[in-house]
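Fold it.
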Amino acid sequence: MGAMGLCSRLAVERAEPCEGCGVAGPLVLRFHYGSATMRLHGIGSVIEWGVNPKGVPAGGYVEIPGYPERCEECGDDVPGRYVIAIEHERIVGYRTGEGSDTAAVPW
């Protein structure tokens, strides 16, 4: 993954271990929505809109792209695209971003 500047981050459980080292540690996804302060969120976190805001508050349900950080253990790139789901400014989930159901996501 290339440089993104300031963003927000979401830590989730990996669906599969790292292809490079086999570690099944957390997966960290970077995203541009809300205050871009490098804060590490979890599922259920509330999105804040104070400092260095990215995007516009949706108020309802929105899906945004999530970009995986490198494996914390071995430094290998994590393949794939991810979609982060936000409802009423709260992170409610994530999924892989493959297939035709991601056409509305602003990649």
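The first strand starts at residue 8 and ends at 13.
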